[in-house]
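Re: that backbone. Tokens:
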């Protein structure tokens, strides 16, 4: 479907099919690597904002996923005093799999 609506992609896929190019960067490994690089950069920017914030909080919530594996949603909240008016921002960072939803386990997740 992609080449149907985009002439540049149409030409690219035509070259792949005719063996004119061998590195096409459309494979799942390249796409996953790109997604991981973007996620890492976004996470770094969020952590930098949190480090510069005067006030912040950490929110954790345990819930089982569809396979009944306990997971924690990890959310950071901070007061952004660099904007006018001052804003409270909330950032979802990730889901973390845990074996034990106890308070001690949650504490260890925060420390890690």
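Recovered sequence:
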């Amino acid at each position: 479907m992609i080449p149907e609506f985009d002439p540049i992609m149409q030409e690219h896929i035509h070259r792949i099919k005719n063996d004119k190019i061998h590195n096409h960067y459309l494979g799942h490994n390249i796409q996953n690597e790109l997604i991981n690089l973007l996620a890492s950069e976004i996470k770094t920017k969020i952590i930098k904002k949190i480090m510069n914030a005067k006030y912040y909080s950490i929110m954790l919530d345990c819930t089982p996923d569809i396979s009944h594996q306990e997971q924690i949603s990890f959310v950071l909240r901070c007061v952004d005093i660099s904007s006018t008016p001052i804003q409270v921002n909330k950032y979802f960072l990730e889901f973390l799999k845990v074996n034990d939803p106890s308070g001690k386990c949650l504490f260890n997740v925060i420390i890690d």
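The beta strands are 56-64, 70-80, 87-97. The chain has two domains: 1-47, 53-112.
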